[in-house]
Amino acid sequence: MMMKASLFCSAKYAAPVPDDVWPLPGTYYSPDVAVRSMQTTFDQFRLADEYGFDWVTCAEHHFSPMSLTPNPMVMAGALCQVVRRAKIAVLGPTIPILNPVRVAEEFAMIDVMSNGRLVAGMMRGTGNEYVTYNINPSESRERFAEAVGLIRRCWTELEPFGWEGKYYQYRTVSIWPRPVQNPHPPMFMSTSSPEAAEFAARNGIGAGFPFTTVPQAKKSVTHYRECAQAAGWEPTPDNVIYRAAFHVAETDEQAFADMATLPPRVSLTNKNKALSEAVTKSGYFGSDFAGQTTRNATRELAERIELGQIVVGSPETALKQVRRIHDEIGAGIIDLVVGVQLGERTMRSIELFGSKVLPRMHEF
């Protein structure tokens, strides 16, 4: 079973703004920049589709220039006309803060508009989503469980039905249109916590690992598989998604130079004083690059590569890093985040991954 790649573009606002203020005042906003930012996102998704990426991904966030997609369903609907071949993964709407019948209807619309290419993410979301819509986060797990069951029934029940739950009540439900995929589109959710992994396994839902590390995900996915076996089914690699930021250039030196020239809070690096010489000990770089670890920014990048949080380097180097994620976690899909916008260098990164890395990934 071949390993697949997805491109995740967050539609980041393409101008400098404070990154330590939430919510950010509208005084920083320029319509022209927002239009340009969205067009850049569409251009990158279109390019990924042309170069063979298996999926494209969008998600939901609010009140932030880091992501201009408060409604990922709108983005996914637009992508049905931009991306002609790849699956469209909505990972996803924040289920507990939304109307689950409306979510089921919108997902079904996207599946029809894309002729059965939808991947449906069921997400509980982060703290800012609950503040945004004034929903009590202590209810999120129960709301999520009830909503997922209701959404699945909306997709599979052919006769009108009523729903009397703790959080949701509907006199009658019978959605139109209905999904193209039978019995319904593939479902995924974040499974980093034991409780989430257990819920996903019991309900036959795929496991997602966003912005974690390989060691942490390895423990979580083992628990998920054990719970699935106890529930009577065996997850395949296609049931496991792992997310990492990425940047690929012709050489390791160029890829790291691209990243190291950016301010740390803008680049893919993190500020961590306990840095190790991960490049020389990891084996994921060629010998010619081993001497480049003298710069702090490069060492920070190397540490995050060692943790599996980012994929950076030449096509050959990127392939080794992806292979490690595949082998250690058993992930069948890697969701690659455009972490920074570097203009033509970012477009070239997508091209290189699609043309040089992805064909060999498909052989895993």
Describe the structure.
The structure is a single chain. The protein is an alpha/beta fold. It contains 12 helices and 11 strands. The protein has helices spanning 31-50, 72-82, 100-113, 127-133, 140-156, 194-202, 214-230, 252-260, 278-282, 296-307, 315-329, 344-361, and strands at residues 4-8, 55-58, 87-90, 118-121, 161-164, 169-173, 187-190, 206-209, 240-248, 310-313, 333-338. The radius of gyration is 20 Å and the shape is globular. The N and C termini lie close together (7 Å).
Any low-confidence stretches, pLDDT <50, length ≥5?
A: 264-294
> Count of DSSP helices?
12
Per DSSP E runs of 2 or more residues, the count of β-strands stands at: 11
Structural class by SSE content: alpha/beta
Q: What is the H/E string? A: EHEHEHEHHEEEHEHEHHHEHEH
Spatial strand order of the main sheet: 1-2-3-4-7-8-9-11
State Rg. Answer: 20 Å
**Helix share, percent:** 40-55%
Architecture blueprint of SSEs:
Blueprint: E1 4-8, H1 31-50, E2 55-58, H2 72-82, E3 87-90, H3 100-113, E4 118-121, H4 127-133, H5 140-156, E5 161-164, E6 169-173, E7 187-190, H6 194-202, E8 206-209, H7 214-230, E9 240-248, H8 252-260, H9 278-282, H10 296-307, E10 310-313, H11 315-329, E11 333-338, H12 344-361
Parallel strand pairs: 1-2, 1-11, 2-3, 3-4, 4-7, 7-8, 8-9, 9-10, 9-11
Antiparallel strand pairs: 5-6
Helix pairs in contact: 2-3, 3-5, 6-7, 11-12
